[in-house]
Amino acid sequence: MAGSINKVILVGNVGQDPQVRTMQSGQKVVSFSLATSDRWRDRATGEQKEQTEWHRVVIFNPSLVDVAERMLQKGTKLYLEGALRTRKWQNQQGVDTFTTEVVLNPYAGQMIILAGAKSVDNAGGDYGPSQPTPSNAPEEITPAQIDDDIPF
């Protein structure tokens, strides 16, 4: 197989309202944190457990920047496809610092709003059928609805 694949798929909730910045080139960039959680029942105690991971998301794709700027808010549930990128810089003390981000580049990546977006009236604009709004967002599937008896 020639080449390699760098693809990340996440479903989670926006951790804070997105930050919009404009680069020197005039291109807008949106960034926010996304929380993903695993839940399970401890076999020994029967206690419900949860572990949350926080992911930094950066969107460079202009059409997704537009949607994110107008529709996303803290708590919005998203499906994202992007690529991992690790950046290095020196902090104010001169120490090398690293951060790993999920990046949605121009002509790459995907973002689907699943629930909790700003209303179209407040956000302005028409998002069409490819970007569900709260009134036509897909229902959330619970583990009880998934058939575990898949034959192989």
What's the gist of this structure?
This protein has 152 residues and is mainly beta. Helix content is 9%, strand content 43%.
- Rg, Cα atoms, Å: 18 Å
Give the number of DSSP strands.
7
Stretches with pLDDT under 50, minimum 5 residues: 122-152
Number of helices: 2
Helix content: under 10%
Q: Termini, distance in Å? A: 26 Å
* Oligomer state of the chains in this structure: single chain
Q: Report the portion of residues in β strands.
A: 35-45%
Order of helices and strands: EEEEHEEEH
Mean pLDDT: 82
Overview of the structural elements:
By secondary structure, the chain is mainly β. Helices cover 9% and strands 43% of the residues. The radius of gyration is 18 Å and the shape is globular. The model is unreliable at 122-152 (pLDDT under 50).
SSE topology sketch:
Blueprint: E1 8-14, E2 19-22, E3 28-41, E4 48-59, H1 62-71, E5 77-90, E6 96-104, E7 110-115, H2 120-123
Parallel strand pairs: 4-6
Antiparallel strand pairs: 1-3, 1-5, 2-3, 3-4, 5-6, 5-7
